[in-house]
Design goal:
Layout (H helix, E strand, L loop, with lengths): L9 E6 L1 H10 L1 E6 L10 H13 L1 H5 L17 H24 L6 E7 L5 H7 L6 E6 H7 L6 E5 L4 H16 L5 H18 L13 E7 L4 H7 L15 E5 L2 E9 L5 E6 L6 H13 L8 E3 L6
Parallel strand pairs: 9-10
Antiparallel strand pairs: 1-4, 2-3, 2-8, 3-6, 4-9, 5-6, 7-8
């Protein structure tokens, strides 16, 4: 959840040698759609936390001490008590609509590149780097962001695995938006904006069971689409339709994976760690020669894993 300091945005991408060749040769990196990550409950975990917070704060939302706006117009004969009941009904509608949004499973245009703060971690080698035969590329993500500033709106976030932190954030966002509800129209808009706020923060949180990964994410995000966008923009099709970049697709284990591409300048590559099962000295020499030909500085930037794994 915490954005890394601008002068400390170095993180490691564990991958196969084939992926290294593609990234360095093409100078490009894929950001995969967040709903197609290895964690099949990606985003859903945070949405469930938000739903729990929403339900536990029902009374604060619906029976709040919201004052009736001075500019409100009441029907003849309507008492202040009935007006207050009307306000409660409006907040109840806000709660109901937000609950529907959080319960939906729908396609979303949030794309992530996954990195770790671990520079030599056995679980990362085994899980993401060809069972230890691959590499870990050290990137300066600040350089990557700068190189793509004209094409994509990118942000770098360190993932939080703290469920209590997730709950506190969700509560703050939900109650703040609920306080802005004054009539039927604002109930519609604020429930949609609440979902937009929570959606924006969703990639920053993961199930505590993944805490050992110490993940850092490079995130590209597009505006709301589909039914939620129609709700927010009252059906105007010109809003929420532009993608952060041209979305492409590749196949992985029988699934079609949507992704967007970011530019990786040579200057962003700060070093390469070789996995515990990478190969012998001859393989390392070939890798050094390849990186040098691509303009990557290799002196003192190639390291072998200290993990004993075979």
């Amino acid at each position: 959840m915490n954005q890394l300091a601008n002068n400390n945005q170095k993180a490691f991408h564990y991958c196969s040698v084939a992926s290294l060749l593609g990234i360095v040769s093409e100078g490009k990196f894929r950001l995969g759609n967040i709903l197609f990550m290895n964690d099949y409950l990606e985003v859903a975990w945070f949405k469930n936390v938000c739903r729990s917070v929403l339900d536990s704060n029902y009374d604060k939302i619906v029976r709040s001490t919201h004052s009736v706006p001075s500019h409100s117009t009441f029907a003849p004969g309507m008492s202040l008590g009935s007006a207050s009941s009307s306000v409660s009904a409006i907040h109840s509608e806000f709660h109901k609509r937000l609950e529907v949004y959080l319960s939906r499973q729908s396609f979303d245009h949030i794309y992530c590149g996954c990195f770790s703060l671990h520079e030599d971690d056995l679980s990362q080698w085994r899980g993401y780097a060809d069972d230890g035969k691959g590499v870990a590329i050290c990137f300066d993500l600040n350089v990557v962001r700068s190189a793509n500033s004209n094409a994509l709106s990118l942000r770098v976030d360190e993932v939080s695995y703290d469920e209590q932190q997730a709950k506190e954030l969700a509560k703050r966002v939900i109650l703040d938006r609920a306080d802005r509800v004054t009539d039927v129209q604002s109930s519609l808009v604020q429930s949609t904006l609440t979902f937009a706020d929570l959606r924006h923060r969703a990639p920053e949180f993961k199930n505590p069971k993944f805490a050992g990964e110490r993940e850092v994410r490079l995130i590209a995000e597009e505006g709301l689409t589909g039914d939620v966008a129609k709700d927010l923009w009252m059906g105007d099709p010109t809003h929420g339709q532009d993608l952060p970049s041209e979305v492409a697709f590749y196949e992985r284990r029988g699934r079609l994976i949507p992704y967007v591409t970011v530019v990786i300048p040579v200057a962003a590559i700060q070093g390469v760690w070789l996995g515990p099962r990478f190969g012998d000295q001859l393989d390392e020499s070939a890798l050094r020669y390849f990186l040098s030909k691509q303009g990557v500085e290799v002196r003192n930037r190639i390291h072998r894993s200290a993990a004993s794994y075979r």
